[in-house]
Amino acid sequence: MKGSIASINISDAKGESKTPVQGKTMLRPGWGVVGDVHAGTLGRDVSLLPREALGGVSYGGYGENIDTAGIDILGLAEGTLLTIGASVRMQITQRGKVCPSRCSIYYQLGNCIMQEKGVFATVLEGGEIKVGDEIKVEGTPFSEDIEWILANCKRIAVFGASPKTDRPSYRIMQFLLEKAYEVIPIRPGVKEILGQRCYPNIQEVPGAIDLALIFRRSEEVPPLVEEAIEKGARAIWMQEGIASSEAFQRAKKGGLKAVMDRCIYKQLKARDG
Fold first, then answer.
1. pTM, entire model
2. Which of 32, 205, 236, 247 could covalently link to 222 via disulfide, CB atoms 3.0 to 4.6 Å apart?
């Protein structure tokens, strides 16, 4: 997937629209756009919007640093890696945001689409960028981890396992059992699912765990990752629709393989042809 930079924008005051920059602009690793007031915001070095979402508003009007063209920036998952121009690499860390209060942008434009359509990224490798530079999806930091997990993780603890047959966790557990994986449901108050004994938490599971497969709301994931690390799990997998950058980064720092916002059923089916 490829696109390009439509505009680069900076400002010297927060809560205000940004002004397009002419010529080249420097991005600094772990900092953002040099000269912009929002640079240095932890985990949100750079903000992006698709040009198509502006609806007639001028570039930088919503306070975004980079307007993109020809790329489905809104469809990219947290953790996706991008290359821009000759040397810049960045990683998407957040989609959308919660504003603590309404700023001047809201009152000028009547709304602020950054809350819904804003994409935020951290700069991994810096350099100069300019309007027209190519933006390319390099992949996700867990693309290699997916193959490793599918090949090496045979004993799987399932957070959010459900005894209800219409739930994704039930159907995927059934599929994994058919594929000869050992599946251990984690579900307080339930004795067994699909003939497999349930445990109230991962710490009470006897023996080692290869993979913690998570079917819980994104905001509930970080403490589960801590439990998986404490248990000595080798990897964590957040099922499709579940994404927590905080939990993902914690898992990687803890030495675990990690995947988020991917369906293990789909990945196994694709792997098996």
1. 0.57
2. 247
Please state which CATH number belongs to domain 143-272.
3.40.50.720
Alpha helices in 69-113 (DSSP H): 104-109
* pLDDT tens string 202-250: 999 999 999 999 999 989 999 999 999 999 999 999 998 887 878 888 9
Q: Which position has the token pair 């397009």?
A: 20
Per-residue pLDDT tens for 96-126? 776 666 666 655 776 776 777 889 998 989 9
Q: 2-139 has which fold?
A: M1 Pyruvate Kinase; Domain 3 (2.40.33)
Q: How far apart are CA 34 and CA 28, in angstroms?
A: 7
pLDDT for the residue numbered 229: 97
Residue-by-residue DSSP string for 109-162? HS--THHHH-EEEEEEE-EEE-TT-EEEEEE-TTHHHHHHHHHH--EEEEET--
* Closest to 31 in 3D by CA, of 90, 77, 86: 90
How far apart CA 255 and CA 242 sit, in angstroms, is 21
